[in-house]
Every structure is written in structure tokens, then in C-alpha cells.
Design goal:
By secondary structure, this protein is mostly helical. The protein is built from 8 helices and 3 strands. The protein has a 3-stranded antiparallel beta sheet.
Length: 172
């Protein structure tokens, strides 16, 4: 499904400013999934989410299948973080490689849930649309931002978020 041409990316993210108060809820549900992955994979990290970041990066890089294009730790963490600039304006970063990162997350969870039961805070999302559960605020911010910034790459990213056959349009 990935429509973004990885060779055309010059900056790995789309930066979008958030409204006051929205930054508190960004990535909360996805952090629960990261914590589940972190607890049940051992990639040698002692830091919180370190094992999850590493496992997701390894899986995403194998899904890309190219040696010249890699997923970074910052791209994986960008899905759950809100940043601020020097003027104290809050913004999110949506990585162009989002398709591969989310596909890796959900494949890892599918593998892990056969061995380890899902905790109640993650199990409550089973049967719900992934975008609504894990990326709702970011996708709505992107929809508003997209109206003024449409081009080939942003259109491809828009399709990866909102298309009916998107990885985020499936049920968890």
C-alpha cells in the first residue's frame, strides 16, 4: 500500500502545529502498545521503550527491504511525542515512513499476543479501527494541514492515513 516514494523524501517528517491542550493526549494509546512490546521483547536496552523502538526499527527496515533507506529511532518515537520550538509552540512530526512503522508495530503485536496475553489497557482496543484508537488527533491535524499543503508526497501520505485499504483503516 505504501505510496510514498522513499527516494523523493528530502526531510523525513511533516511538521504540524497543535492547538493548546491537544499535546497531552498525543500518543497516549500508542505508548501503551509500545510498553507492551517493550516488556515482551529483549533487544538489549535498559531504557523505557528502548526495546520497543529497536524491535520496531528492525521489523520496519526488513519490511522496506532496501539497504539505502532506514527507519530511525526518532521516526519511531515521533508517532507518540509532541515537541516544542524555541517560541514554545507545540508541534508533531509525522514521518513519511509511517506506513512501515505502523505495519511493523501491528505485526510485532500479532506475533507477541500468541505467546503473551494482551494487557487490559491494550486489549480494550481490539476490534476498533487503528486510526481512531492510536492516531486520531494526529490524523485530524494532518487532514486540516493538508488542505493548504497538497503536493505529491503529502497526497501519498494522506492516502496512507485515510485510504480504505490503509494499515490504519483496519481493525486492531
Amino acid at each position: 500500500m505504501n505510496k510514498v516514494k522513499l527516494d523523493e523524501i528530502t526531510y523525513p517528517y511533516v511538521n504540524i502545529y497543535v492547538l493548546d491542550g491537544q499535546e497531552e493526549n498525543i500518543g497516549k494509546n500508542l505508548q501503551k502498545v509500545y510498553l507492551y512490546i517493550d516488556q515482551h521483547t529483549n533487544m538489549g536496552s535498559r531504557f523505557q521503550y528502548g526495546n520497543a523502538y529497536r524491535a520496531i526499527r528492525v521489523k520496519a527496515n526488513s519490511l522496506i527491504g532496501r539497504k539505502d533507506v532506514r527507519v530511525s529511532k526518532r521516526e519511531v518515537s515521533a508517532l507518540v511525542r509532541c515537541r516544542s520550538n524555541i517560541f514554545c509552540k507545540k508541534y508533531i512530526k509525522i514521518p513519511y515512513k509511517m506506513y512501515f512503522i505502523f505495519k511493523a508495530i501491528f505485526e510485532i503485536v500479532d506475533e507477541l499476543k500468541t505467546q503473551y496475553p494482551l494487557p487490559p489497557e491494550v486489549k480494550c482496543f481490539v476490534g476498533k479501527i487503528r486510526r481512531e484508537s492510536f492516531y486520531e488527533i494526529q490524523s485530524e491535524l494532518y487532514r486540516k494541514w493538508y488542505r493548504d499543503h497538497e503536493d505529491y508526497l503529502t497526497r501519498a501520505l494522506y492516502n496512507e492515513i485515510f485510504a480504505g485499504n490503509s494499515i490504519l483503516s483496519e481493525k486492531f
